[in-house]
Amino acid sequence: MIETMSDTAHLNVGDQNIEIPVITGTEGEKALDISKLRNSSGLITYDVGYKNTGATTSAITFLNGEEGILRYRGYSIEDLAEKADFLEVSYLLVNGELPSKDDLEKFKKKITMHTLLHEDTKNIFEAYPTGSHPMGQLMAMISSLSSFYPGSLNPYRENDERMLSIIRLIAKMPTMCAMIYKKQMGHPVMYPKNSLDYVENYLHMTFGNVTEEYEVDRTIADALDKLLILHADHEQNCSTSTVRIVGSSHVNLYAAVSAGVAALWGPLHGGANQKVIEMLEAIKADGGNYQKWVDKAKDKNDPFRLMGFGHRVYKNFDPRANIIKDSADKVLAKIGIHDPILDIAKKLEETALNDDYFKERKLFPNVDFYSGIIYRAMGFPTEMFTVLFALGRLPGWIAQWKEMRDEQQPIGRPRQVYTGSQSRDFVPMENR
Ligand code: ACO
């Protein structure tokens, strides 16, 4: 039995009465601080999937899943998506405050100066089999930066060295992402163009080619910039927790972020945006009977789930999905394409939102549902979708890694409840 009294909770286990401090965050969230529980009682807590475990305090992102609130450093996602650009948001996440005009100009200038990759990087790229998944390549490219910039290896280096690693990573990420795309397409790599802004440059390196100048379409560039902002951080999600736990061993930033990319790759996390389009294509190939697939998703004997629906923390609506839905409409209207896949998406959305199964379980389209649709309309192949998520999430990973290092947090090392065999005698081979 556990009862909470002001800022101390009392836990009764057998005849033991254990006092547990209650900590309170700036938005009134309360947590039992069990960090000393094992010392005083021999007990650990058990929570598979960390569904109810606070692994850290953090001053970066606040989200309230019940009310659909998301704020970076106190600023609402709605304001940031409408009024800031991605590099401004990156500065905010990494440094904690909005930049002055001068700070932002200097930050952008530094990023622009570091967009080129070392020419030897091409050798690494050439060794990849054509058609290998872009996320695997991205992980390898990011961690290879530690070889090109050995100054990054010691995360205890003074701040300037650490900031240089951060700037390099933000600057080179679009170049790496575009290079991966070009390799997929079998096209020559485009070098960055420093007269363009961050997102324009990425579009130029992706969709531009050596035969003609790429003309930036502002609707597309603005929508992509917004998408990156919406993905920039999401507190202690699977990939961010991975970056923190890997970084807690004092490995360098590039290795920690590369691990975050691996975690993001999975279809239950960032890989969902690719799975959304694959699902829509499968429904189309099956004759477009979306109701059949909704029924499959509801059938408990069928492992199929509607990709892009539901969320671990948002249980009423995903504030990012509301913003992105508007962008999706604008992009589709601007590009003026007719795509049967998008018709199926609209019908699925409508059906699921009006179906009791989805309503009761609070399953609604999440950010990945709409982002997949926008990326497809922009012309990105599905395998690149999660790479775009990684491009957006990068400043969040960096900010969380930096916060953890600044606070000198201990190495992450969860406990377990052992359920295997008790001690037994070894049986020699001839007796087995
Ligand atoms: N389709 C059908 N049923 C679903 C779906 C879905 N997409 N998502 C959840 N459910 C059902 C579950 O079967 C369960 O039903 P039950 O209570 O009858 O057993 C109930 O809803 C709760 O589901 P959980 O898996 O317990 O919810 P959880 O919070 O653990 O999972 C998750 C959240 C992983 C996102 C889940 O909704 C899912 O698998 N969605 C599809 C994948 C996806 O879109 N992932 C992207 C997430 S957003 C992001 O990473 C940026």
Bound molecules: acetyl coenzyme *A
Question: How many beta-strand segments?
Answer: 7
| Helix share bin | 40-55%
* Mean of pLDDT: 91
What's the Cα radius of gyration?
Answer: 24 Å
Structural class by sheet pairing and helices: alpha+beta
- Count of separate structural domains: 3
What low-confidence regions span 5 or more consecutive residues with pLDDT below 50?
none
Q: Distance between the terminal alpha carbons, to the nearest Å?
A: 47 Å
Q: CATH superfamily assignment of the largest domain?
A: Citrate Synthase, domain 1
The CATH class of the largest domain is identified as Mainly Alpha
| Shape descriptor | globular
CATH architecture of the largest domain: Orthogonal Bundle
Q: Total number of helical segments?
A: 18
Strand order of the largest sheet: 1-2-3-4
Order of helices and strands: EEEEHEEEHHHHHHHHHHHHHHHHH
Largest sheet: 4 strands, antiparallel
Question: What fraction of residues sit in β-strands?
Answer: 5-15%
Give the CATH topology of the largest domain: Citrate Synthase, domain 1
Question: Can you tell me about this structure?
Answer:
The protein is α+β, with helices and mostly antiparallel strands and 432 residues long. The chain folds into three domains: 3-54, Rubrerythrin, domain 2, CATH 2.20.28.60; 78-266 and 392-405, Citrate Synthase, domain 1, CATH 1.10.580; 272-378, Orthogonal Bundle (Cytochrome p450-Terp, domain 2), CATH 1.10.230. It contains 18 helices and seven strands. The strands form two sheets. It has a four-stranded antiparallel β-sheet. Strands 5-6-7 form a three-stranded antiparallel β-sheet. A hairpin with a 2-residue loop joins strand 2 and strand 3. The chain is globular. It starts with a strand and ends in a 26-residue tail after the last helix. The mean pLDDT is 91. Acetyl coenzyme *A binds next to helix 17.
